[in-house]
Amino acid sequence: MTFDWNLAKTFLAVADQGSLSAASRVLGQTQPTVSRQIAALEQALSVNLFERTGRSVELTPFGVELVDHVRKMAAGANMVSLAASGQSQSIEGLVRITASELMSAFVLPSILGAINREAPLLEIDVVADNDIKDLVRREADIAIRHVRPEQPNLLTRRIRDETLRFIASPAYLQAKGQPNMANLSTHKIFTFVDTDRMLDHLRPLGLDLTRANFRLSSSSQLVALEMARRGLGMIIAPDWLAKGDSEFVPVLEDIEVFTVPTWLVTHSEMKSNRRIRLVFDHLSDKLS
User: What's 234's DSSP letter?
Assistant: First the structure.
């Protein structure tokens, strides 16, 4: 088939917004037009890309596979266009990114280094904060979140699902022994979120936990991580951190891992703001 980039852009908008009506607002088109374009793409590919569930839509397994490829093509096409015209070298101004402390400290540095090489005049401020900043009130230009915002006039893109697991330091395991489902009530867990919220997430997994397991906490992810590194308790951390830090080992591997979605969010002016678009596309490409 001949690749129609207009259909692909519509496909991305519907996938990111989760409904035909929301995608039509982002694209500046009518809902029937968006619906016809999705139908045309599905006919051209001879597959269903979305499951219709009331007013919303969800990607089919083939749609999930396709969206990653199309998203990388979109980000790459935009960066190639900027580089070819020399625009990226002249883009300047401030872009403020807000993300969690762990994301800011361990994931963003390599991505921001690449952006700096491509657009050396660009200023980037990383707001490392575990609270959700308000993009509508311009507390940040781009946010990386685990909760999809509900405010209007925001562009959202689900870039990946984060796998979380329990990890512990050798010092903790030497002092307390290997945790398992039978002795879990005797172990300590260091948390960086509200204890009741944490219990609400963990109890459905069948874990025998109470507030007594969470005697130590901190609002700072980095503080919590360092405390766990010193052997003060286990911690729940992203899979990439568990596998990339030799000072931690996975524990409780017999329980089902749990995931949280990761959303990339910006305000609607991204479409007309070159510096925000450049940073957003880089983040989308590297974090997907």
Answer: B
